[in-house]
Design brief:
single chain, 265 residues, mainly alpha, 0% strand, globular
């Protein structure tokens, strides 16, 4: 069995895998937002403009790539060290408070800022798990985190499983990595990059719509922008930690063995 093989190699690796699975399979962000705000979110959905989903998808797609470039540049040289999760929580909460009072009107300005902060935290976590954040594959894995624990716009059920989401994105990530490796990120409108960003943004924008619905309710939006961003950051930090532990173990044991062991737990 895969679990026995890992356990006989390094016991701490098996413990890390168990913790990673626990992180990745906790309730997703949509469920947490519903628990926090409950029925007021339903009223907020009715206040959103008719073309809201399209507008949010476009904002999210632009914010993801620009946010990644900013995040990697501000982290400095790639070296393994403990990630500064609390600092990024504070920064994201402050960004949320600043944008919360302005309601929906602040989204085109606040979302790119909060996305860059979240991506900076995600990349910091990747580095703390021993990954080289200058690598194209690791950069794209940072973006991949935004698809985890979210949902697609048409989902009515619980969140899809971790491996299902990764499998759905695998081809787009491979094509984007190959294109960027040859031609760099200068051509942001190139089809391989657009396809990947669209796939990730479709899930990310769905949870942003939940956030916007909460902010659209006056007594929530004015006071809870920071709380919403705090919830976002905690969620994506948890997803990032689980994701990059899995990626670290895959580098050591191979992807097939880790997926099999994950399913055996």
């Amino acid at each position: 069995m895969a679990l026995e093989y890992i356990s006989s190699s390094v016991e701490s690796d098996l413990s890390d895998l168990r913790i990673a699975k626990s992180r990745l399979e906790n309730p997703g962000l949509a469920a947490r937002m519903a628990d926090l705000f409950g029925k007021p979110i339903d009223a907020g959905f009715k206040a959103l403009p008719d073309d809201w989903n399209r507008r949010v998808l476009e904002i999210a797609r632009k914010a993801l790539l620009k946010g990644l470039n900013i995040a990697i540049r501000t982290l400095g040289e790639s070296q393994t060290r403990k990630s500064k999760d609390r600092l990024h929580l504070i920064l994201a909460t402050g960004s949320g408070f600043a944008g919360g009072a302005a309601g929906l009107a602040s989204l085109p300005f606040e979302l790119p800022i909060s996305t860059a902060i979240m991506l900076r935290s995600i990349a910091d976590i990747a580095r703390s798990e021993g990954h080289d954040i200058s690598s194209i594959d690791v950069k794209l894995a940072c973006l991949e985190v935004f698809a985890l624990g979210g949902r697609s716009p048409g989902d009515d059920s619980a969140e899809e499983g971790y491996w299902i989401i990764r499998a759905a994105l695998a081809r787009s990530i491979s094509e984007a990595a190959s294109f960027i490796g040859k031609r760099g990120l200068a051509e942001e409108s190139a089809p391989p990059i657009v396809r990947l960003l669209s796939a990730i943004a479709s899930r990310f924008s769905a949870v942003i719509t939940d956030e916007a619905a909460a902010k659209a309710v006056p007594f929530i939006g004015a006071v809870a922008g920071g709380a919403i961003n705090l919830l976002f950051m905690q969620h994506f930090q948890q997803m990032a930690r689980g994701h990059f532990v899995i990626k670290r173990l895959e580098n050591k044991y191979g992807a097939d063995l880790i997926e099999k062991a994950y399913r055996e737990i």
